[in-house]
Amino acid sequence: MCNIGDIFTEILKDEINANDQQKLYNGVKRLIKKYSQEKRGLETLDEFVRVLTGGASLEELLQIAREESQNPTITTEIIVDDSCHKNGEIPAT
């Protein structure tokens, strides 16, 4: 089956895109918490994230997300909805 890799990748991307963003983030947080005391578990999770992202570590992604939420770039402000504004939070400037 010469194209199984392409098919698998497209299905995985579709599933990730179909997942609610907050649900995805909460699921990752739950996994981190679950394996926080197990070095091998965290290493496996990080390795999986590196495979999905082409090299970025889980720690790097979380750091960028933290920075972007505190000081959003114009691109982030355009892409991310204004749900924080709706919840009464003051937007970062």
Q: Can you give a write-up of this model?
A:
The chain is globular, with a radius of gyration of 16 Å. It is an all-alpha fold and 93 residues long. It contains six helices and no strands. The relative contact order is 0.06. It is 73% helix and 0% strand. The mean pLDDT is 86. The protein has helices at residues 4-18, 21-35, 39-53, 58-70, 74-79, 83-86. The protein has one domain (20-86). The termini are far apart.
Features:
mainly alpha; 0% strand; 93 residues
Largest β sheet strand count, sense and barrel closure = none
Helix content: over 70%
Shape: globular
Task: Count every helix, treating DSSP H or I runs of 4 or more residues as helices.
Answer: 6
Unreliable spans: none
> Count of DSSP E strands?
0
What amount of the residues lies in strands?
Answer: under 5%
How far do the termini sit from each other? 51 Å
Calculate Rg over CA atoms.
16 Å
Count of discrete structural domains: 1
Write the H/E string, N to C.
HHHHHH
Helix vs. strand class:
mainly alpha
Describe the protein's topology:
Layout: H1 4-18, H2 21-35, H3 39-53, H4 58-70, H5 74-79, H6 83-86
Short description, anyone?
Helix content is 73%, strand content 0%. By secondary structure, the chain is an all-alpha fold.
